[in-house]
Structure formats: C-alpha cells, structure tokens
Amino acid sequence: MPHLVAALYRFTPLPDADALRAPLQGLCEAQGLTGTLLIAREGINGTVAGSQEGIAAFLAELREGPLLGGRLEGLECKLSWAQAPPFRRMKVKLKPEIVTFDAGATDPTGDVGTRVAPEDWNALLGRPDVLVIDTRNAFEVGLGTFAGAVDPRLRRFSDFRDYADGLDPVARPAVALFCTGGIRCEKAGAYLRARGFPEVHLLRGGILKYLETVPEAESRWRGDCFVFDGRIALGHGLDERPDHPPEALR
C-alpha cells in the first residue's frame, strides 16, 4: 500500500512546546503515522507518513483542532507518495530550535525577505544582479541544484552565518535563497535582513514545491533533491503515484 508523506513546518511562538510533545506523539500514533516531528518554542518542523485518511486527520488537528488552538494557521506542507514505508517509527522530539542555526538569536517570525512563488522563480534566476545561494549542505547540493546557484560548501546549516558574514550587502544587495522545503531559507533570510541586505528573496515552499509546480521542460533545476526519509531523493513531479496526486489535502 502506498504511503502519503507530509513534509511540514511553521514558525510560530509555542511557549508550551514541552507540554505538546506527548499529545502530538499520541495523535500521530492514533493515526498510524511514522516519521519525525521537531517542536520548539519557535514552532514545528518534520516529515510524517501514513494513510491518506491518517494524514488528513493529523493535518486537520494541527490546523484547526484544540491542541494547537489555531496557532499553526498557514502551516507549510508538501505532500507526495512513497511506495515503500519511508520511516520505521514515530518520534516527536523537543528541541531548542526546529532547525539548528544560532540558538534562537535569529527571529524567523519577523522580516525574512520576500517569498517568491515557484512559477516566478525562473524570472528571478534570470536576473544577472541577483546572487542565488543554495542554503543546504554540500552533500545535498551534490545531488542537485539550480543552474547558476552558488554552493557555499556548508557542512551544516549553522555554517551559513560565517558564509553570510563574508558577503557585502553594498556590493551584492540582491540575494535569492532556496532550500528543500523553505524552512532553512526563512532563518537565513532573517539573518541577511538583520545584516542589512536590502533585497532578499526566498523560494516559497522550497525545491519540493518548485519540482511539483514547474513543468520539467521549463525547469532550471538540475539533478535530484535530497529528502529526509527512506526515498533519499526525488525528481520532477515528486509523486511516486502521479495518477493520484494528493491535492485534496493541500
């Protein structure tokens, strides 16, 4: 039986994150989900898999149920299919940050830059004055990236701070950032804006949304996109069941 995979995140204040871990674990187990969820005072991030009904119930609770009380409105979520189970078990973890960067010094709920829709991304890539930066680590970049993008050769995402500190916002005022699903770009964008970069663009929904949205014939993407589950990497279209796109849950 194919498994529906939901990759999701949302930066939003969750001061009660420690009290949410057990109820979220119970919710996922009750719906038969597997995967990993990270929760912190700054929000939620993770990838889970299960039946279409189980994922639907899980997303409905996050977005509209009493557990989060509407705090995950605007939850970013990408859906795709996996033929084999992509995870072995379900884990909900309490963390200092939902994506490790600088121990919470950068606020991704404020000014992160301008989010660019996937269908408008190619036009931005065509601007010669824009520095396009891949914010993922070097292994991920090695599997695939956008033509013409800069690879900062990061070992881990937190290394982006050192790379950004070496950039001059006067010499390179226009910057475009991308990552797998969008979460790393929001922190990187907030960091650049705080350092005085006047024009920062983020690929909304990340590479996954671009590969899902933009026809392969028009794509500027080269290679595959690493994903954090048993499928390892995905190409254009994302879904292993393209005849049954999970559009009803988006």
From TrEMBL:
Rhodanese domain mapped to chain residues: 126-219
Source domain of life: Bacteria
Family annotation (Pfam families): Rhodanese, UPF0176_N
UniProt keyword annotation of tRNA processing present: yes
Gene3D superfamilies hit by this protein: 3.30.70.100, Rhodanese-like domain
SMART domains xref list: RHOD
PROSITE patterns: RHODANESE_3
EC number: 1.14.-.-
InterPro entries: Rhodanese-like_dom, Rhodanese-like_dom_sf, TrhO, TRHO_N
Top-level EC class as recorded in UniProt: oxidoreductase
GO biological process, one term: tRNA modification
Record's keyword terms, sorted: Oxidoreductase, tRNA processing
Single Gene Ontology MF annotation: oxidoreductase activity, acting on paired donors, with incorporation or reduction of molecular oxygen
SUPFAM superfamilies, per database record: Rhodanese/Cell cycle control phosphatase (SSF52821)
Keyword tRNA processing: yes
Catalysis: reaction(s): uridine(34) in tRNA + AH2 + O2 = 5-hydroxyuridine(34) in tRNA + A + H2O
General function of this protein: Catalyzes oxygen-dependent 5-hydroxyuridine (ho5U) modification at position 34 in tRNAs.
Family per similarity comment: Belongs to the TrhO family.
Protein name: tRNA uridine(34) hydroxylase
Taxon lineage: Bacteria, Pseudomonadati, Pseudomonadota, Alphaproteobacteria, Hyphomicrobiales
